[in-house]
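FORM 7B: Structural annotation worksheet

SECTION A. Query
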Amino acid sequence: MPTYKFKAPKKAAGAESDDVSGTGDEHSSCMVCLCDFEDGDTLKIVPCFHKFHEECIDRWLLQKAECPVCKASARGNEPIV
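SECTION B. Predicted structure
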């Protein structure tokens, strides 16, 4: 699964939106630990394109081979057994 370093987008001057990601992303926090992503955090993208802290999703996947958000298989197109 691919990883990348998170970089928080800059909020436009005068923006009134509560969307802290500024990108319209569904989540700006890790849905395993519930902490917001911060600059420099290493994130991992599972096959369904949800993003998590690398350490959090690695621990999760040791217990369950599915996305904690949508329950899709973390093995890609393989069905969950």
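SECTION C. Observations
Confidence is low (pLDDT under 50) at residues 17-25. Residues 54-63 form the longest helix (10 residues).

SECTION D. Sign-off
Analyst initials: ____
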